[in-house]
Every structure is written in C-alpha cells, then in structure tokens.
Amino acid sequence: MTAIKNAIDTVVAADTLSVDYVETLLSVRLKKESDNGSFTFYAASGGRFAGLVVKAVDLRISDSDPANSMLVIELAQPGPDANEFARRFWTKPDYMPPSPHSRASSGYWSTRQGGNKISIGHPFDHDHINSVVIDRIADTPCPPEVCEPAPLPPLPKSS
Asked: How far apart are the C-alpha atoms of 54 and 39, rounded to whole Å?
C-alpha cells in the first residue's frame, strides 16, 4: 500500500506529465492515438506502477498548455483496499460510489494535492484499487452567462 502512495507522490511531484516521463516511469512505449484539436491522446499497455503490473495507460496532454494533462493507469490485478488506502493516506478524501444500476460502473476515492486531483478507482463488486488517475487539467470557470440564471423580471405593478 505504501508503494502505491509513494508512486503517486512521485508522479504528483513531477513538473509535467510528458510522454518521455510517463514512458520512463511505467516502462511502456506510448502510441499517439488521436488529437482532437484540444488534447493529444496517447495509449499503451503493459508496464509496472508501484511494483504492480499495468494493464493499460492513457495520457492526455493539452495542445495549448502541456501542463494541463491527465494520466490514467489501469492495473492488471487488483491492488490494495481502496477504502483503507484513502482513509490512511488522505486527510479529506471524497467518495463516489459505483452506480447501483450498472455492474460496469466503478467507484472511486479522490483528493486534491496541489494542482492535482488524484483518484483511485475500484470495480463494482469489490473495493480493491484497479485504477489510478492523476488529473492536472485545470478547471475551466463557467462563464456567468451560462452558469448564472437570468434575473427574474420585475413583478407587475398592482393598481
């Protein structure tokens, strides 16, 4: 469990989540999958994270600001208990349970550490870590014209 915490801290401390950095960290070869004009998407399979075998890796890097990036690591085998991990290492973890309407749904624990949102996921049917996400994509503020309701019209004057 401590190995995953230390590995997450290593990623969080990195200046950027570049292709070279992730390839070295996980011992994988990332392949460019697509570019939608906003983000470039890379993927790989295999590798190791915190001594655990990795099933798949997904790296998303902003085209306009490479500091905005997201790394998704899917483990090949279940890791330690997610609930125990979150409560042991994070002071105020948030929990999003899996949807009771979909067995394909995953639950996850998350916390913020600096400019990073860190999430550890677990499958519907057990609480062992099966994914780690390091999200450095900056929250986009909502424009007032979209997020704030229009003012109410004035009340009609009574005679």
From this structure: 23
The 3-state DSSP class for residue 87 equals: helix
90 located within any domain: yes
Dump pLDDT digits (tens) for 76-91.
999 999 999 999 999 9
Kindly give the pairing relationship between strand 52-62 and strand 31-35: unpaired
Write 46-51 long-range contacts (CB < 8 A, 24+).
Answer: 49/4, 49/7, 49/25, 49/73, 49/75, 49/132, 50/3, 50/4, 50/6, 50/7, 50/8, 50/79, 51/3
- 95 belongs to a structural domain: yes
Task: Please tell me whether the overall predicted TM-score, pTM, comes out greater than 0.85 for this model.
Answer: no
Q: Would you say how long the chain is, in residues?
A: 159
Q: What is the mean pLDDT of residues 123-133?
A: 90
Q: For the chain, what is the domain count? A: 1
Give me the domain span that covers residue 46: 2-138
In a domain, 48, yes or no: yes
